Amino acid sequence: MSENVIIKTSKLVHTYPTGVTALKSVDVEIKENEVVSIVGQNGSGKTTLVRHFNGLLKPTEGNIYLHGKDVTSQSVSQLSKEVGYVFQNPNHQIFSTTVRGELEVGPHNFQFSEQEIAKAIKEVSELMKIEEDLEKHPLTLDYTTKKIVTIASVLTFRPRILILDEPTGGLDQAGREILTKIIQMMKERGHTVIMISHDMDYVAENSERIIVMSQGRIIKEGAPQEVFLDEEILKQAQIEPPQIMQLDFALDVRKKRSTISVQDFVKKYKAQFPKQEGE
Predict the structure, then answer these.
(1) How far from 159 is each of 156, 226, 267, CA to CA, in Å?
(2) What is the pLDDT of residues 90-104, one digit of tens each?
(3) Which residues, 6 or more positions from 183, have their beta carbon under 8 angstroms from its beta carbon?
């Protein structure tokens, strides 16, 4: 195993009690300080895979390694300090009567001191702009704020690995900007972020590597440019490239290289169409 691999699976198989095999001998490596997105159609195995990383699911066959140690038999409570998981639906994660209480749960469970808890809540609430919501009941908040609170509740205990299940779902633009700031902060601190997403626009701009799944198997791994230019893989996974790439394809039929962000798109075509006199 490479020195900087933080999570590894070996021949991972998961069959649900219904008889559906959701993972079929999956081998994957996630590196330390990496931002990775896992994409694919519904039922491709994305969520099933990452729920093995913190013990929410146990494999039918195969092994999971964390920092090179076999953690296949470890429980959620043993793994969650290291591997924080944010659910797709915030209503499935919130159970405290105040936002402050929700943020205190993780640090209390991991025996932080009162001073450490207070510091963590102050830092996270300021980062995520929820200082004014701390005494509110989280279920009375709008969907975007509830989602932000669930992410904040995981960040307070400072996991080395953050798993985000459909993090942009239901977020407004302000929420997306906060999410991007969180990902950048985790990256700067040397941590790892794993996203499961159907939002290819966000994935393209905020991932270093993309893992594509289909029918319980990994069918492609690579940088966003590499993945989104592979038409056969996109067809097999039933996903479409980001909208900005589709526009670029329409304008540049060579498709040898395409832009994956609005900023890159503007830069590319601004160079091709210089400003005219009088404009």
Answers:
(1) 8, 30, 37
(2) 999 998 999 999 999
(3) 35, 193, 206
Contact status, residue 216 vs residue 42, Cβ threshold 8 Å: no
Say what the alpha-carbon torsion angle 29, 32, 37, 41 is, to the nearest 10 degrees: 30
The two structure tokens encoding residue 34: 């990496």
For the chain, the farthest-separated pair of C-alpha atoms sits apart, in whole angstroms, at 70
Residue 234 contacts residue 210 (beta carbons within 8 Å): no
- The residues near 232 (Cβ < 8 Å, ≥ 6 apart) are none
- Whole-number Å distance between alpha carbons of 109 and 116: 13
Tokens of 131: 């200082």
Compute φ and ψ for 269, nearest 5 degrees. Answer: -85, -20
Q: What pLDDT score was predicted for residue 251?
A: 81
Q: Would you state the structure tokens that stand for residue 249, as one six-digit string?
A: 């394809």
In this prediction, what percent of the chain has a pLDDT beyond 90?
Answer: 80
The mean pLDDT value for 4-21 works out to: 97
User: Quick one: pLDDT band at residue 246, thresholds 50, 70, 90?
Assistant: confident
pTM: 0.91
* Amino acid at residue number 11: K
- In 3D space, the residue among 65, 24, 64 whose CA is nearest the CA of residue 45 turns out to be 24
Residue 192's closest CA among 164, 220, 227, 234? 164
**Residue 278 pLDDT grade (very low, low, confident, very high; cuts 50, 70, 90):** low
pLDDT band at 249 (very low <50, low <70, confident <90, very high): confident
Distance in angstroms (rounded) separating the CA atoms of residues 97 and 125: 17
